[in-house]
Amino acid sequence: MSRHVAIIPARGGSQGIPDKNIRDFAGKPLIAWTIEGALAAQGVDRVIVSTDSDRIADVARQCGAEVPFVRPASISRADTPIEPVLSHALDWLVANEGYRADLLILLFPTNPLRQVRHIEDSLRLIHETGADSIVTVNESPAHYSPYWTLVRAADGRVTYFGGGDIRTGPARRQDFPQQCFAKNDLVFVVRPGNLSAALPSLYGERVELLVVDRIYGGDINTSEDWDLTLSTFRVLASQTTP
Q1: What is the pTM of this model?
Q2: DSSP string covering 79-131, please?
Q3: Are residues 199 and 104 in the same domain?
Q4: β-strands 46-50, 4-9: how paired?
Q5: What is the pLDDT of residue 147?
Q6: Residue 74 CA to chain centroid, in angstroms?
Q7: Are residues 193 and 150 in the same domain?
Q8: Same domain, yes or no, for 166 and 201?
Q9: Angle at 67 between CA 66 and CA 68, to 5 degrees
């Protein structure tokens, strides 16, 4: 039997927005939207919040998530990569419960626009493709594409990123050599072995992309992000209300 575990990392020391993860967003604590989405997704067997905060832990439990451990301070700093956070959760489950996950579903609580189908489609895709990981992305808009990204060189010349002459670059989006994508941090599905590989990472060697509409990529890090994401949330809610 497969074991698919959703891990929601939620530090207590938010710098940009104090208490961000438990601040009210559209009538619920921000983290509640992610917990409820994970609980509703078919194929997710457990929903675990990794936090160093008692307050976040209490709210997470009230929302239906498990909080079986306290994340150590050593991996709860603002500059802590996500890989040791996931490895700690995996190791704790093995050491304390004898539980070995087959897949990890990484869900950041700063994306309240995530839909249940994004989680389910990501799980379906990793099973269909046999990939090492699934990463949700959106297609990069033309003005954010590396093919139109401008930089100023040390000598003051303006060139395309990589040094290309702007006079000979593609004039239209349709002329780009290939399609480009931007990670939106909605969903990562990760095989646990990726974290213990020679080059530990979320991704492994074979990555598959799940392309979703850009409107769902609301990642909240600043007050401006909060306001914009809340506005988008209300637009989406109005579209689904009978």
Answers
A1: 0.92
A2: T--HHHHHHHHHHHHHHHH----SEEEE--TT-TT--HHHHHHHHHHHHHH--
A3: yes
A4: parallel
A5: 85
A6: 22
A7: no
A8: no
A9: 100
What tokens were used for 231? 């506005």
State the residue for tokens 């609301």.
218
Amino acid identity for residue 170 in this structure: P
* Co-location of 132 and 226 in the same domain: yes
Banded model confidence at residue 241, pLDDT cuts 50, 70, 90: low
**What per-residue confidence (pLDDT) applies to 173?**
83
Question: Please, which residues have CB within 8 angstroms of residue 124's CB and are 6 or more apart in sequence?
Answer: 43
Residues 204 and 214 in one domain: yes
Calpha distance 159→198 (Å, rounded): 37
Is the per-residue pLDDT at 66 higher than 60?
yes
Closest CA to 35 of 2, 72, 70, 8: 8
For 203, other C-beta atoms within 10 Å of its C-beta total 18
Same domain, 38 and 119: yes
Closest alpha carbon to 145 in 101, 115, 177, 168: 177
Q: Which domain holds residue 121?
A: 4-137+181-240
| Dist CA 218 CA 187 (whole Å) | 12
Q: How many domains does the chain have?
A: 2
Q: For the chain, how many residues are written?
A: 242
Residues 106 and 204 in one domain: yes
pLDDT in tens, 139-190: 988 888 888 889 998 889 999 888 888 888 888 888 888 888 999 999 999 9
According to the model, what pLDDT value does residue 240 have? 67
Q: Where are the alpha helices (DSSP H) in the chain?
A: 30-40, 54-62, 82-97, 116-129, 223-240
pLDDT of amino acid 71 = 96
